[in-house]
Amino acid sequence: MNIPFWLDWLLSDPSHFLTPEFLHLIHREFYDHNAKWLICAVGDTEIVFWFSVLQAITGFRHFHGGISKLKQVTGRTQHDIQQSIIAVSTDAVPSAVMTAIHALMDFWYLVQSPIIDDIQLTRISIALKEFHTNKDAIIDGGFRCGQHGRVIENWYIPKLELMQSIVPSIRNTGVPLQ
């Protein structure tokens, strides 16, 4: 094991100077988990259909073949999926599932604000709490699937655990860099 570089720094705490990195924490988490949950909940052919009939908008990618078969997904592609996925899947999934995913997306958008005050921190905490209140509906519906469609019945997702530290990190160091 390597010795941490801050070991001999007096009164140092890594949680004060190692802040969250949003590309992997937020955008990759969205595609690796939330989008997969919704694809599982709505159904592959249904979500392909709904994405294919969306009106093409200049500046946004149009997913003619849906999103479930995408192999390499860039940050821009994830952003474009985030713009439409709630509207595409709202009526096809249970309301508690949609509430959980919507709360998680609210959380991500709020933490990316260039200015965050105490009111904003309260909204961020409420959004995360709302996700945790409704997240069991995702597992209860069998929508948290792993490889080969096997249902996963736990919440061992390190990125979700890391989200618990974002509000304290913002309080300690200010708004994270993007």
Order of helices and strands: HHHHHHHHH
What is the mean pLDDT? 84
Assign the structural class, choosing from mainly alpha, mainly beta, alpha/beta, alpha+beta, or little secondary structure: mainly alpha
Low-pLDDT ranges:
none
Strand content: under 5%
Note the gap between the termini. Answer: 30 Å
- Helicity, in percent? 55-70%
Shape: globular
Gyration radius, rounded: 18 Å
Number of helices: 9
Layout of secondary structure:
Layout: H1 14-17, H2 22-42, H3 44-52, H4 75-89, H5 95-111, H6 118-134, H7 136-140, H8 158-163, H9 166-173
Description:
- The protein is mostly helical.
Key traits:
178 residues, globular, 9 helices, mainly alpha, 57% helix
Brief overview:
The chain has 178 residues and is an all-alpha fold. The protein is 57% helix and 0% strand.
